Amino acid sequence: MVDPTIAAEIKAIACRLFERQEFKHYKSCQDEILSRLLADGTEKIKAATEADAIALHRAASRVARESKTHSRRMMIRMLALSTVLISLIAGSLFFSIASNATLIKVLAAGSKESWIARDPNTLIFLSWAVTAMCTLALLGEWLRGRATRRAIVRPVKTAADVLERSLASSVQEALSAAINSELGPRGIIAFPTHAPRLVELDVAHFRQSRTTAYIKEFILEHEASAVGLAGTRGSGKSTVMRSLVADPEIDGPVIIVPSPVRYDAGEFIRVLLGEIAAAISQGHSRPVGSRLRGAVERTSARRLLTLVGVGVLAGVLPDAFTTPSSQGMSVSWLSSNSFGGLIANVTSILLLTFVAIIQLAKVALRLDAETLPPDIRQARELLRELRWETEQGTTTKSTLKVRSFFETSGESSIKLKSRAMTRSELVSALRDLLKCFARHTNATRMVICIDELDKINDPDHLVAIVNELKDLFHIQKVHFLVTVSTDALDSFEQRGLAGRDAFDSSFDTVVHTNWLTLDESLDVTNSRCTGFPPIVAMLCHAWSGGLARDLLRAARGAVELQRRTPNEPLSVDRIIRNLVFDDLEGAVRASMRGLPAGDEQLDGLWLLHQCLSTARRGDVTPHQAQEDISDMSLKEPALQALLAKARIGLSLLRIAGIATSLPDYWLEDGKTILNLRRAAEEHAEAIKVLGEPTPILELAVQTALHEFDPAILR
């Protein structure tokens, strides 16, 4: 029997979830889904939140005991302080109202030589000061009691928040399962509509790829290295570099420097020198007390002079207010022998002492800068030379004067202005800095990553930059990781035919970035979008071929498609259909615009466009459209690759339609998903080789299409 209270709470949370954008399009089936949720998910939700509910009960019992003890102690302290405060207020009022004669009689036993008789104002001041201090103590005790009370209650609030989040998460998970169970047979499953992380991020949120593991192992096993990283755009070259930054096993600074789009002789080395010098300078900074040292360095001479003036004024002011009377008494409360004068003198001493400490700290920082390691001193000097122009001047003046009738003079001036370093000087300075770093650093290594060097399309400029970097390679403890274009990789791999070129003689090895495997693609989608269906992730992997950028683009397109239809839940077949046809039709239109008017291949592209449009409207099945496209032929390799991609896309639609007709296709460990892996991997392999020669491409397409048997999904 289901507890009515728990059922009502689950139903309330589920109704709030239906108001969110992610579940809003399922409201038309809300009653059926809620019935399924209460029938199948209540016990699972209760079991998932049982530990958090027990923790909340224990926290509430402990807080009740501690609150009772705290309230008793707080009451006693506040009562005692209130009694003292009332007494002090009464005494201060008496001192303020009573005459001097009464004060002398009561407090000084009638003696006119007492300090009370000489300066009764000080007594009044002290009494009210003590009263103010007691008032502050009472206020502080009250505030401390409130803070303690909040600290005592905080575990209950924390436990309640944990239980609330756990319950909301469990209900959301159970609601997705109820949607899949209720609407899955119709081809509709729970699908996210908000995925802000389906973009390229600074850190890769999936397990280490084969390329990253190989490069990391290569760096760790060698004292110095120069590694080239090649691959197509979007294959994850930048991600490999960023993963090294977050890897603690590197044990040293990892510097990523983007390459220029246009080559300028010497400018790239200047930028590289600045980045490395800045990293070395920051790497040696002491974390402890860095804020205090920064505050000392930012304290200007003008502020120190102001503090000195205030301190001197505070010390002189009491003497200026000292006006002896006929009885030898001071009439001012700020006189040197009064309490106010004492405060002024103490303030003066404190301010002057503070200024002296700041000055000593500045001297100590200058001395500390002179004792820095040689590499950081050299790095800071280079940064100064790169950022500022230094100008030095010397002026000499001689004057000869004989009495008042003869005078002669001469003056000479010399000005020296530093010039910008040449390319060879920049390379030499950078090499000396890296060697100095290797000799004096405590780090195990430094990794310098030159990112996006493949943006430079001119082979001559690319060779020029590699030659500039070549002079810096193979310094002990220094490793270079450079991204190069696919053409550079081909040149390196052909060394046996074309001889040793600039790439062959520079890099120890050139590694090609591997495309994501199916498991890695699933990790990407799961880590960046909670609740992303495994079957859609597999089909996105197949359509992207495992290229990271295209995978994210496909998954993001699927999420945006569901978000654009907030009032209607989309089936898996419809999501994949829109995703595939949008890409294919856009590619066909772009190819048609790229051909000149009258080209005979325009007719073939128009037939392909018509065939895709017919299949999208549902006039023909994907299988029929696939057979129609098989009879088409285009001459250019790029257009042949487009035909092959269209055949692969239509095959994916066929797979999606068959898979969603099978039971439990939405379960991650279901039989349908397990059987779908082979088909997804074969289609991804065909997408990978779209740019390869025709025989390789045709073989991959035939393997993906002809060996596919719908029976394997069953």
UniProtKB/TrEMBL annotation:
<feature type="transmembrane region" description="Helical">
    <location>
        <begin position="123"/>
        <end position="143"/>
    </location>
</feature>
<feature type="transmembrane region" description="Helical">
    <location>
        <begin position="78"/>
        <end position="103"/>
    </location>
</feature>
<keyword id="KW-0812">Transmembrane</keyword>
<keyword id="KW-0547">Nucleotide-binding</keyword>
<dbReference type="InterPro" id="IPR011646">
    <property type="entry name" value="KAP_P-loop"/>
</dbReference>
<keyword id="KW-0067">ATP-binding</keyword>
<keyword id="KW-0472">Membrane</keyword>
<feature type="domain" description="KAP NTPase">
    <location>
        <begin position="222"/>
        <end position="491"/>
    </location>
</feature>
<dbReference type="GO" id="GO:0005524">
    <property type="term" value="F:ATP binding"/>
</dbReference>
<dbReference type="Pfam" id="PF07693">
    <property type="entry name" value="KAP_NTPase"/>
</dbReference>
<dbReference type="InterPro" id="IPR027417">
    <property type="entry name" value="P-loop_NTPase"/>
</dbReference>
<keyword id="KW-1133">Transmembrane helix</keyword>
<protein>
    <submittedName>
        <fullName>Energy-coupling factor transporter ATP-binding protein EcfA2</fullName>
    </submittedName>
</protein>
<feature type="transmembrane region" description="Helical">
    <location>
        <begin position="338"/>
        <end position="358"/>
    </location>
</feature>
<feature type="transmembrane region" description="Helical">
    <location>
        <begin position="301"/>
        <end position="318"/>
    </location>
</feature>
